[in-house]
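Could you join me in thinking about how sequence relates to backbone shape in a protein? To get us started, please write out a protein record for me. Would you write everything just below, so we can both look at the same thing?
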Amino acid sequence: QSWSRGMSYCLHSESHLDTGPIYVRENGKLHMVNQGAGGVQNVTPKTRPFSLFSRSFSVELCMNREDDRARRQRTDHFIFTYTKEGNLRYSAKSLFSLVLGYISDNVDHIDSLIGFPEQIGEKLFSAAEARQKFTEPVTGLRALQKFTEAYGSLVLCSLCLRNRYLVISEKLEEIKSFRELTCLDLSCCKLGDEHELLEHLTKEALSSVKRLLLKDNALSDSGLRRMTAPVRVLKKGLENLLVLDLSCNPKITDVGIGYLLSFKKLNCLDISGTGLKDVDAVIKRLQMQIGLVHSKVPLKEFDHSNCKTEGWAEQTVLQWEQAVMEAMKPQDNLRSRVAALHFYGKTHRIEEVVNRTLVEPETKTSGNLQFYKENVENCHLPLKKEFAGSHELKNNKKRALAEQERERTSKQKHLCLTVEDWDLLNTY
């Protein structure tokens, strides 16, 4: 009776819905309940179409559903390749590459990389560089500082910013974050004496610079005084400088050359195109006090062929330059305006702005003032044979040594500082 009550309830309740056939097993036999008759019949089950879902039901396949912004930032977790037969084959990325990609996407949130293995640090830097994380205004600087603090010269050991004055103005803080640079080329950037980057050269972070090229930067004697003040008094700053290029700076006079005498380790010097008044006196002074010999032919150290950007951040500097060029593209519209002015028979000064290019100044051969130190392995000497058998040079060496002994005994030359020098040193 209980079975019949439950079945009748099932049949009569919600009878308006099509629930499909109902099967009941009783006494080892399968019975189908007939809803219309309200009883049980021993019949053979009929195959009739049966839908599990209603007609209005829809299915949508969703994998790793994220918002569009996050989907653009993340990379695919599969690697697609083709077989020899031309069939598409995919394989999952390794866990290391997935974690590396995740960290590089959030590289600006890293607290510190000090003590982290260099091999993994280089891969992490490359992954972040491929995502152009270092080109972002605020987060890029913060991320770059984490790498430079931990790896120093591995991030960048040589930086060439020749003719890239726009990159310097746009990425000055990023450039200042590089540490342990050994070569820095700032030629033809028109920085001047008061530029922040020149002041940064005297900091301890760039005491490792051995090759400094400042050709055509509108420098004067005051700029050299500021740049050499830590070396002259505190024995800090650019005390390890070996090669210095100050050519094409006409405001540098004999007074400014006197500040360079504090660079005792200097092997090569170029002061061509400067505003020297007594050239012969300067030549003798450089030779007697720091042992630099005037070269009759141009030196290879100043042909700018060996100066390159080297390190992990080599592509990063190129990305900065490309970003600056992209930002300058709207000025191309000026050409159409110039064309319109020419069409109507008018001229305008705007043509000078469009066609203006930075032309690197060239020093005359007759005004070549390049110096080198003899018997130095790292300095490319022009012609050693011309100077090897010269008795005059030997005598000059003796006089130079004697002059150095006199300077050591003379305390006034070391302690004679002007008020401007003390004011300058107080700023460090």
The chain has a mean pLDDT of 76.
